[in-house]
Design a protein that fits this description.
The complex is a heterodimer of chains A (260) and B (483). Chain A has 260 residues and is an alpha/beta fold. Chain A has helices at 4-11, 19-24, 30-33, 44-49, 74-86, 103-108, 124-137, 152-165, 231-234, and strands at 38-39, 55-56, 60-65, 91-95, 118-119, 140-146, 169-174, 186-192, 197-203, 211-216, 224-225. A nine-stranded mixed beta sheet of chain A has the order 5-4-6-7-3-8-9-10-11, sandwiched between helices. Chain A is globular. Chain B folds into three domains: 6-19 and 74-225, no CATH class; 240-339, DNA polymerase, Y-family, little finger domain (Dna Ligase, domain 1, 2-Layer Sandwich), CATH 3.30.1490.100; 388-482, no CATH class. The chains are: A alpha/beta (260), B alpha+beta (483). Chain B: Keywords: DNA damage, Transferase.
């Protein structure tokens, strides 16, 4: 049959003939769909897992945390630090942190605390309003927002703010919110696995369903990822319990995306 | 030296125009009661068109304009408004004299006025015409009806404002005597003697005048001609902005207040422009009908002078306010005026991105604080201290220096360490790190800090209190969370 041909070639990851003709019809390859502008997560293992190779740069990323204090914030810190140092006059807003933050710890992670305003709103509505205002002011390269009770509307507002100001917004929520619908571009669940913490992609633009095991406490950093089986990095890991038998990152259910 | 040139502005309807509020719609009369007589001292334009005049009995005015609202006169508010306007005039001159109608010691027949010297600044503002146009435009925006007069001495300039409109440009000598600020007895006597104009009076021999009317008249004439210093008390720029706005009607809703405050803040901005100043701290006092007060403190992030910015900040602040009673008066008090910094245009501005207004962060910060409270926005500080609880603090502005360090510290630090009931369930990862400090104050600590993981997978920062009594409760405390 003549019509079977295009499907067959698509499996071999190439569109037939004139690709622009397909694109005009709104058809794109999944990998192209995922090729949005991104913010590197600074964890190479995580980057490989995420569509496009990092957090979406102009959208909301949700972290669904099972237990607060299991490394969810330090996961983000290097990425935030890199963003701050890449944009010298910029700020990152920390909105409604649930506990007092410790200044020396942030400074030790390379974050310039002069450029980290803390905003404490009375309720979610005020916090979202504050983020919208700050995003509109320019000069912000990201926001981190802690809130469990965000509504769909509030998230949508955040998503719009992120798109307009072209900066990522990271939202920490309880894992219990995973069941709710969310307009966030990326939803990552951080749970406790058998071997350290597990990061699971609950929703993303592009191929989905990947997960990553092995976030572990290390001796000189709060958390490290279990390195992939390269001996050099493996020696880095000294703690007996953290160093697992094979020391590999769990493979995601999908083949890893092509490196960008 | 430039020749002195004085501009006099007389405000015939000042008792009404000085009030802040919605006088645009509806007609209003301001009346003064003296003894048993109640007469009109100011009226809106449509009442004037209907034939209402100064000094007319209220009953008479009611006959001509039956649906007019009647307000009683408040001299204190008029005075405050005129003082504000003097601040505005400061941008044109540092010789500003103001006088309210009916106030001693200067006779101010025919309304409140403002006189200031403009000769020195004519060049700066592009000549007399341009300056007049600019001033007229400002006054129109404030809604102050005025009559202007220009002459080389303040007294004559004022006399010109009182001259009938048809003779505004007449020679000085042809000014009617009734325009001059002479005392009533002298004026009546001169008019009875057949004198009509200033020129006729000046032609008389001084000795005769002195004998007949005393030295005071002669002094007045000398001042009129500029042979003597004008002797008017001059306005001095205050160190703080402190004023009160009388409202035309009581304001019940926040929405109405927004409207009124626009006017109030425009006055503030005009004053700041005149004074070439900026303020960072402003207190707004809403005075209610029952004389209770609501105070709104606005602490801006940086000195500001822009009406639009004040307005946005105030509107955000108002969202947190519930009006308990109608507002009849608004008071403003600022901190010391600061010299205005001229904005430097940036050579390398922040990269323009769609949907953002670059450089707007200080303004947004003010608005956030106005709406959420001043303490809602803060920065972390890292004081140089060894005790963990003293090494992290928050302040209302960013720290001067960014600390660096590589000590292993938790991201979250509990303000009050929590006792750990069952330390045996934890997996100790690293430690101990001895922290022993603070012997000089009452909060001395002797602790061994450990990193440990609990069964839920959290990485904790715990310490063992070395001073804990043996056999007491568990000496282990949870102090922080690596998150």
């Amino acid at each position: 049959m003549r019509s079977a041909r295009p499907i067959k070639t698509q499996r071999r990851h190439s569109l037939p003939g004139d690709t622009s003709q397909w694109q005009r019809l709104g058809l794109r390859r999944a990998s192209q769909q995922a090729r949005q502008s991104i913010v590197g997560s600074s964890w190479s293992a995580l980057d490989r897992l995420l569509p496009g190779g990092g957090y979406p740069a102009h959208a909301v990323t949700e972290f669904l945390v099972e237990t607060a204090g299991t490394g969810e914030f330090s996961l983000l810190l290097t990425c935030l630090g890199q963003r701050l140092s890449a944009h010298p006059d910029s700020r990152i807003g920390l909105v409604a942190p649930p506990r007092p933050l410790n200044a020396p710890a942030l400074a030790a992670q390379g974050l310039d605390i002069r450029r980290l305003p803390l905003i404490a709103g009375g309720n979610d509505g005020e916090c979202v309003w504050a983020i919208e205002q700050m995003a509109r002011s320019g000069g912000f390269v990201g926001f981190v927002f802690w809130s469990d009770g965000l509504t769909n509307t509030a998230l949508r507002k955040l998503q719009l703010a992120a798109e307009n100001a072209a900066c990522p917004i990271f939202v920490y929520r309880d894992l219990a919110c995973a069941g709710q619908r969310s307009p966030a571009a990326l939803r990552l669940a951080i749970t406790r696995g058998d071997r350290g913490q597990r990061i699971e992609v609950r929703k993303c633009r592009g191929p989905a369903g990947a997960r990553l095991d092995g976030l572990q406490p290390g001796p000189d950093r709060p958390w490290i990822f279990m390195p992939e089986s390269s001996p050099a990095t493996r020696g880095f890991e000294t703690h007996a319990e953290a160093c697992n038998d094979d020391g590999t990152v769990a493979r995601s259910a999908f083949p890893p995306l092509a490196p960008r | 030296m430039t020749t002195a040139l004085w501009l006099a502005l007389r405000f015939p309807h000042w008792p009404l125009d000085s009030r802040t509020g919605e006088t645009a719609d509806g007609s209003w009369l301001v009346v003064e009661t003296r003894g048993s007589r109640c007469f009109v001292v100011a009226a809106t334009a449509d009442a004037v068109a209907a034939g209402v005049r100064h000094g007319m009995d209220l009953a008479d005015a009611r006959l001509r304009q039956p649906d007019a609202g009647v307000l009683s006169r408040r001299p204190a508010g008029e005075r405050a408004a005129l003082t504000r306007l003097a601040g505005w005039a400061w941008q044109y001159s540092d010789h500003v004299h103001l006088a309210c109608a009916g106030e001693p010691p200067y006779d101010t027949a025919g309304g409140s006025h403002l006189v200031f010297e403009i000769g020195a600044s004519l060049r700066l503002f592009g000549g007399r015409r341009a300056l007049r146009r600019r001033i007229a435009l400002d006054l129109k925006r404030f809604g102050h009806r005025h009559v202007a007069g220009i002459d080389s001495t303040p007294q004559v300039a004022l006399a010109r404002t009182r001259a009938p409109r048809s003779r505004a440009r007449i020679e000085r000598a042809a000014l009617p005597l009734s325009c001059l600020a002479l005392d009533a007895g002298t004026l009546a006597s001169l008019q009875a003697s057949g004198f009509r104009t200033l020129g006729e009076l000046l032609a008389l021999p001084p000795a005769t005048l002195m004998r007949r009317y005393g030295a005071a008249l002669l002094d007045d004439l000398d001042r009129l001609q500029g042979h003597r210093p004008h002797g008017l008390p001059l306005y001095r720029l205050p160190a703080r902005y402190r004023t009160r706005h009388e409202l035309t009607g009581a304001v019940v809703t926040t929405q109405g207040l927004v409207f009124v405050l626009r006017r109030v803040l425009a006055d503030l901005a005009a004053f700041l422009r005149g004074a070439d100043a900026a303020i960072q701290h402003l207190r707004l006092i809403l005075i209610h009908e029952d004389d209770s007060r609501t105070r709104l403190d606005l602490r801006l992030n940086s000195p500001a002078h822009d009406a639009a910015h004040f307005e946005r900040v105030v509107n955000d602040r108002l969202t947190r306010v519930e009006l308990t009673a109608p507002v009849v008066e608004i008071g403003l008090a600022s901190e010391r005026l600061r010299r205005r910094e001229q904005a430097q245009s940036q050579l390398l501005s922040e990269a323009a991105r769609p949907g953002v207004e670059p450089g707007a962060w200080p303004a947004v910060l003010d608005r956030l604080r106005a709406r959420l409270g001043h303490d809602a926005v803060g920065w972390l500080h890292a004081p140089d201290a060894h005790r963990p609880e003293k090494a992290s603090a928050t302040g209302d502005r960013p720290p001067i220096e960014a600390p660096t360090g590589n000590a292993m510290r938790p991201l979250w630090l509990y303000a009050h360490p929590r006792p750990i009931a069952a330390p045996e369930t934890l997996t100790f990862i690293a430690g101990p790190e001895r922290i022993e400090s603070g012997w000089w104050d009452a909060q001395a600590v002797r602790r061994d800090y450990y990193r440990a993981r609990d069964r839920r997978g959290r990485l904790l920062w715990i310490y063992r209190d070395l001073d804990a009594a043996r056999g007491g409760p568990s000496p282990y405390y949870l102090h922080g969370l690596f998150g």
